[in-house]
Amino acid sequence: MSKAQRLSYFIKHELLRSFSPVYFAINMGTGIVSILFDIFPYGQSLSMKILSLIIYFLNIFLLFTFILWGLARFYVYPHDWTAIMKHPVFSLYWGCFPMGAVTIINVSVTVVHDYLAFGGKGFLYFIWAMWWLDVLISALCLWGTVHYMITSQTHSMELMTSVWLLPVVTLIVASSSGAIVANALQTYSHIHALITVTVASFIVIIGISLSLMILTIYLQRLILHGLPAGVTVMSVFLPLGPTGQSGYAFALIGRDFKSLLPVPTSPAPFLNWPYSGQTLYMICTCASFLQWTLASLWILFAIIAIPSALRKSRIPFVPTFWGLVFPNGVYASLTITLGQAFNSAFFRIYGAAYAAGTLILWFSISCRSLVYMYDVVFNTPIMTDSRSETQTLDQAAATDLANEPTTASLEPKV
Q: Which residues cross the membrane (predicted)?
């Protein structure tokens, strides 16, 4: 094959088909780093906001790249959509899409609208509309994926991992974003802000309730069958997602209720009670601290588990390592937020240190991903011309690709 033929074959049959919803975890990890620069408790200045914005725009670019990549794959290989949805693992990663988008919504409000005063009311209401769309997609991920798990997939206790949490955490992540949007909406509409924070409360309770049920099953699986094998052992950090993010959501929701309630003109006794806002603030702050303690519990489990797994075998790098960044990042953001609520030096210092560790983790995985991608693109057999020159393009395609997608074809390669 000529170089042009090899490149065309690689793009259509290898690069294009290597898309996986796993890649939206990159948006989650990159987005949480942007948020951490925004809320970091020390050294807040224009420089920190600029760093947050740089990563914010990078995240937007990555999100649209992955969306277009996925659309191209399913346009060329429409049967792959069904294959991914039937896959008991890869289908769960669709939850990464709305969660990655939420990080963009958050920074759009706190940095772009609030700090830079960009766009005014029109921009904020556009972001509000995007939040409602994200809530809808998150709800589809939760109920749709769980329904598919029940009716169309085969699962077992031994093979169960905390990846089951991914479609469930979507509503929790959306709820924290709703609280951020509601805080900004207060300037323009008290009723819109109150509706938003109420919906955020509704969905975070749904999300954390189902998450705690799954975490109970996951703990039972660990006790009965031990740690997950191979690279899947890294999923032990995923419980930080629902626990840390729900704590962060409760803290922000409580702050909003404190400023939005009471509503003296409301005929509802609950809304016009003078202490309604303060009471809900106290309840939400206590719930936030409770979730922080649960997240700390799972961090210790994870820290103990990783060395134990490394003693058994080496853990190779795979794209799913990106799933480590977001859970650790939300734990850091929760810790920093509690430092503000309690005016506690311990929480501020601990949160800042954990945020710095998350940044190092993000940078390390980013560098390793670039090396991984380079190896895949430039060392793949079709690009190094290791195939026989007498083998035609059609023969290569017939050899390498089945008519229907297989599990191997779903594995992310880039």
A: 21-44, 50-71, 92-113, 125-150, 162-185, 191-215, 222-240, 280-305, 317-339, 345-365
